């Protein structure tokens, strides 16, 4: 899972310091499933801005100078998190699934393509699991204006919502990042693909554990856009073990995404 890691997660995702009221959150943000060409382009644009312009990862198929995308986007669910008042896409993520029914589409997850030699767990290996039960969460990014203290892309003076204080970007970053991971968890459940893989920095995995998401390392640490390793989590177990404080927000996120994805996910599952 590629995430923008410079100043994005310097502070832990401390549940005690965050306002996790679902109404509070959804008054200020909304999830969007990127189905239209315009929505997909918005996700690719944010990814390019974060991963290629900011972090200089130079990932993607390099077919566009302003969009970061690859072949796995053809069999992925792309998700945006939009800040309502500004209209800015505050974050994005994708859930890569295997579409065995579609010819010409890769039948492997991205980490199998790029990091297969690093996978060391025989029990938790994508090859050992049914294709329609696995997925990979990746390309999670947060817009710089919700992280950086310098050069915001929109004027925070024009944002009057008492729930969004752009002067406190550390808290904004944490709630946005946490909501994206909860959104990914919900999407995985809705697709009925409980076996979840991700490429994570070990440091970031520790922060996820502090928020109640316990990934298990199943690959060696390698140099892949920084020090990363393959991790695994069972979505059903993850939901069962969510901290009590997170459950109301997770339930509401799941409800919102279920409405947005009902027709799309039914066609994938059938």
TrEMBL record:
It holds the Pfam family Acetyltransf_5. SUPFAM superfamilies: Acyl-CoA N-acyltransferases (Nat). It comes from the Bacteria. NCBIfam families: exosort_acyl. This is PEP-CTERM/exosortase system-associated acyltransferase.
């Amino acid at each position: 899972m590629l995430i923008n890691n410079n100043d994005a997660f310097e502070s832990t995702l401390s549940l005690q310091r965050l306002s996790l009221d679902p109404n509070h959150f959804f008054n200020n943000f909304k999830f969007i499933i990127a189905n239209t060409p315009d929505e997909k382009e918005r996700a690719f644009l944010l990814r390019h801005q974060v991963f290629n312009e900011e972090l200089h990862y130079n990932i993607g198929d390099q077919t566009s100078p302003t969009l970061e995308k690859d072949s796995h986007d053809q069999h992925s669910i792309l998700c945006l998190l939009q800040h309502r008042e500004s209209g800015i896409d505050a974050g994005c993520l994708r859930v890569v699934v295997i579409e065995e029914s579609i010819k010409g589409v890769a039948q492997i997850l991205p980490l199998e393509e790029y990091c297969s030699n690093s996978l060391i767990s025989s029990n938790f290996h994508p090859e050992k699991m049914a294709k329609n039960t696995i997925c990979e969460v990746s390309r999670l990014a947060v817009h710089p204006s919700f992280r950086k203290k310098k050069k915001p892309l929109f004027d925070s003076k024009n944002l009057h919502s008492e729930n969004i204080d752009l002067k406190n970007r550390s808290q904004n970053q944490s709630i946005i990042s946490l909501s994206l991971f909860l959104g990914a968890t919900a999407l995985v459940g809705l697709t009925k693909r409980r076996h979840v893989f991700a490429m994570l920095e070990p440091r970031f995995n520790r922060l996820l554990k502090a928020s109640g998401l316990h990934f298990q390392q199943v690959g060696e640490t390698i140099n892949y856009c920084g020090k990363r390793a393959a991790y695994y989590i069972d979505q059903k177990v993850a939901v069962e073990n969510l901290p009590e404080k997170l459950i109301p927000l997770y339930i509401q996120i799941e409800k919102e995404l279920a409405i947005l994805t009902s027709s799309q996910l039914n066609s994938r599952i059938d």
